[in-house]
Amino acid sequence: MHDHQLQSILRHMPAGIATLLGPELRYGFVNEAMQMLLGGATPTGEPLAEHTGGLAADLLEVMQQVYETGRPYVAKAYPFSAPDPTDGVVAKRYFDLALEPLHDENDEPQGLLLFAVDVTGQEEARQRAHELSLETRRLDARLRVLSETAPQITFSVDTSGQYEYVSPQWYYFTGQPPTADLNAIWPLLIHPDDRLRVLYQADAARAAGVGWSFEYRMRRHDGQYRWMLSRALPELHAPDKPVFWHGAVTEVHDQRELAEALRRGEAELRFLADSIPQLIWTATAEGFIDYYNQHTGDYTGLSAQELGPTGWVALLDPTEQAAAARRWVHCVASGDAYEGLYRMRRHDGQYRWHIIRARQLADSRGLRWFGACTDVDDQHRLREVLQTQYDELARTNRDLDTFVYTASHDLKQPLFNLRGLFEELRRTATFQDSEQEQLLEMVDESLRQLDGTLQELAATVQDQRELAAPTEDLDLRSVLEEVLLGLRTQVHEAQATIDLELSAAPTLVYGRANLRSVLHNLLSNALKFTHPARPAHVQIATSLSETGQPQLTVRDNGLGMELRQDPFTSFQLFERQNPQVAGAGVGLYLVQRILDSRGGHLEVTSTVGQGTTFTVHWFE
Predict the structure, then answer these.
(1) Do the beta carbons of residue 299 and residue 284 sit within 8 Å?
(2) How far is CA 461 from CA 365, 398, 586, in A?
(3) Residue 319: how many CB atoms within 10 A of its CB?
(4) In the chain, is it the N or the C terminus that has fewer CB atoms within a 10 Å radius of its CB?
């Protein structure tokens, strides 16, 4: 009865127990745990070699040797492919195996006792601990490499403030030898004005068991003090107090100087940033908004939940929502930047003009959209007012041009009448005045000047209307010959010689009417101011500037004129450069106006009695 109870207990033990009898190691007693380990029911009395039950060959050999030698053997964490006792799934498991020889009363070998204890959990934990140990050593080596290659000075310090480690960068920065006493030298390299503060803050942080972050000046190897940022955190192993602090010292001297330079405008920039109404939002790659900034809620009076994933579209004017939504869907599909001007509803129900912009950003987290809605309602309305005023000014300017043109035209008839009356008076009336001829010549000259002024006023209006004339590719020689043909009378009267050298820049992209007006005024000016002691000689040449832009030079040998020191003389309307020669002072003003409108300028050099040179820079 006692043996039966013992076998019942052994049969249901969680550890595997089996007896193997005789030299063939035949199966004797096998409990349930061992049967599961061996893969099911085991035939009692059969040799182990014929029913190995998944036991490896090396284990079978060891079992035979234990039987023969009589020496027990223990195998730790021996791997088996055995079913899991919880779910029956066959997996790799580990057992501590004990092989104990069995002897009879005469101490003769009788067999073996096989005892197997499942240590899968302990073995997996041991292997995991081993892997973690290897990983820890690998990470420690990597951390050391990173700390010694990073540009910052890294360090470790204990609770008493003694430095346990410092990276080589400290020696490079300070110029101290590796044999220097780090704990004694470090405080001495801190600027005297910062030393007490730094030592106190570090001691206080270590006493409180917290990290620190502060800036101070440290002396570099060249003797210059540089601003450094020191940061450290405690190494915590709860519930114990920290015993080490690890940190880094980073040079922030340049950033600090830049911050000092920027600090002067910080107040203005902060005011400007607070004054600009910006509604900032982000959206997913599919175009659904997942974030609104605080100003969006303040501006719209709605929460993020109320705005929803398409909030800004719903805030637009109903007549604009469909087009804005279609444009947004197109940009999300194509990746194009989104930009548009729309009216958006404010929290008080007022619709205000906004510029809505969004850009796509791709990073490691995938595609995202970043957008902003900028209130430009005031600018938009101001632009409308300015456009209205501009249209009014343009209309007034056209009316003024029309008035000047009409007045100059209408005054010609009274001028003709006066000229006719004076001609009739000269023919029929006689004067007993010794200065009769001089007076009549003065009257004729005044009438000619009045006639010329009226003609040039009309020409001024006409030329100003042609300032916006379309450009075309023009042949300079052809246009010059056309202008000289119109001036042939003046050329003949001045007995002028005209030299053309246009090979450097034979063509010019310009407005035909504008080019003809510039050339006509410059050439007529050169012919008008001829020197009475010599025939006129006018040289016209083209060249290229240092930037490759075309230039035109008109040089004469006439009377010359007195100019200011500035070669870029500004000519005013009705300003006459040489009062001895008849004229209204309009021509050079027109040239300057035309060149200014096309992005060029006029350069003048002149010597009284020798001549004048005009250089036309067509483009800046």
Answers:
(1) no
(2) 65, 10, 11
(3) 8
(4) N
E-only strand ranges, 159-194: 163-166
Terminus-to-terminus CA distance in the chain, angstroms? 122
Domain range 466-617, its CATH number among 3.60.140.10, 3.20.20.70, 3.30.565.10, 1.10.40.30:
3.30.565.10
350 alpha carbon, distance to own chain's centre? 34
Residue ranges per domain, the chain?
Answer: 2-118, 150-260, 271-375, 382-458, 466-617
| C-alpha separations of 344 from 287, 315, 378 in Å | 19, 5, 13
Strand partners for 390: none
Q: Nearest-CA neighbor of 440 among 429, 451, 450, 454?
A: 429
CATH code for residues 271-375: 3.30.450.20
Share of the chain above pLDDT 70, in %: 78
Q: What angle do CA 79, 84, 90 make, to 5 degrees?
A: 70
Three-state secondary-structure class, residue 317: coil
- Asked if the model's pLDDT at residue 584 lies above 50, the reply is no
Identify whether the C-beta of residue 543 lies closer than 8 Å to the C-beta of residue 501.
no
Residue 578 in this model has a pLDDT that exceeds 70:
no
SS3 at position 392: helix
| Burial class, 190, CB count within 10 angstroms (exposed 0-12 / middle 13-18 / buried 19+) | buried
Label residue 57 by pLDDT band (50, 70, 90).
Answer: confident
Q: Which comes out higher in pLDDT, residue 296 or 232?
A: 232
In CATH, the number for domain 2-118 is: 3.30.450.20
| Domains 2-118 and 466-617 agree in fold | no
- Per the CB < 8 A criterion, the answer to whether 515 and 502 are in contact is no
- Tokens representing 232 are 């450290």
Number of H helices, E strands in the chain: 20, 22
139 burial type by CB count under 10 A (0-12 exposed, 13-18 middle, 19+ buried) = exposed
Taking residues 187-213, what's their average pLDDT?
Answer: 94
| CATH number at 150-260 | 3.30.450.20
Q: How far is CA 525 from the centre of its chain?
A: 55
Q: How many alpha carbons lie under 13 Å from residue 519 in its C-beta half-sphere?
A: 28
User: How many C-beta atoms surround the C-beta of residue 173 within 10 A?
Assistant: 20
- By DSSP bridging, strand 537-544 and strand 497-501 are parallel
pLDDT score for 221: 93
Handedness of CA 295, 298, 302, 304 (dihedral sign): positive
533 and 564 Cβ atoms separated by less than 8 Å: no
Mean pLDDT of the region 216-224: 94
Structure tokens at 596: 């200014």
Q: Residue 37: name the closest of 113, 92, 74 by CA.
A: 92
Q: How far apart are CA 255 and CA 211, in angstroms?
A: 23
583 pLDDT band, cuts 50/70/90, is very low
Could you give the CA distance from residue 342 to residue 354 in angstroms, rounded to a whole number?
5
Whether the per-residue pLDDT at 611 is higher than 60: the answer is yes
Out of 371-380, 412-421, 477-486, least confident range: 412-421
Distance CA 395, CA 399 (A): 6
